[in-house]
Amino acid sequence: MHINQYLNTYGDYLKRRFGQRVQKLSLSGNFTCPNRDGTLGRGGCTFCNISSFSGEGKESLSISEQLAQAPEKRSKIFLAYFQAYTSTYAELQLLKRMYSEALEYPNIVGICIGTRPDCVSDEVLDLLERYQDEGKEVWLELGLQSAIDETLDLINRHHHFSQYADTVNRARSRGIKVCAHLIIGLPREELIHNLTTLQMVIDEGVDALKLHQLHIVKGSAMAAMYRRGEISVLELAEYAKIAARLIQYTPPEIMYERIGASVQDASLIAPMWSTQRWPCIDKIGEILAEKGGQGTAIGRPYIYDGISRG
Question: 221, 43 in Cβ contact below 8 A?
Fold first, then answer.
């Protein structure tokens, strides 16, 4: 079984676009976040400890140095991925200098910018549009997590879905491709919330999706809640069922860049199955092979068949 038979993957898109494999290289611009520096709040989102998802120690290196030292280069061409924190949250000239430094590095064919939906100015979008007009592959990756405003309040995001929708509309009106990041397993959410989020994102227009399970990491507010028994995490089988269901309700033209995340970091508290990448992908693939792949449930009423969280 090859999961690419059952969903439209970002990797396959890049191979068609460039005729070969393209690898993303993660970068840090030493950005902060308005939810940490006091502009909107302090302490960040309740799940957040960014060092779990992007290696520490990059902040002291220039963009070119980070690209030169990137481990495990498995391709000949690359996308520069500004991943850590809010990678549009700085003065425009500083952003331009860092983005341009990355794009001028040998064998970099494009750029991916990870950020919050409420931190993307028209000036930043104009800059990204210019890179795209020059023939670069350009992606705006928006960490939405959930479209349910009550959930966004609960996890201390300090933005609502309306701000995401506004940014998506401004980006896509310029032809900039958008990838939305969604978390499955957030507190008080069940399958209906995940399906609602998916539909709201689709209705606004989106080019790609990233799904991943809720992680509990050291240093986050959720870590204390988890220790007190106030929140739980999904087992692998539960997560796979929900992720597969979302994929089945996703139009075939939308790409999936990720359907589950792995964490190779000592800060991970739960779920421990997240330390391995392939069991999650294989389990989702098994469900899609048995019950139908991407887009096969479109037009059907939502069917839950026991998928629920208390």
Answer: yes
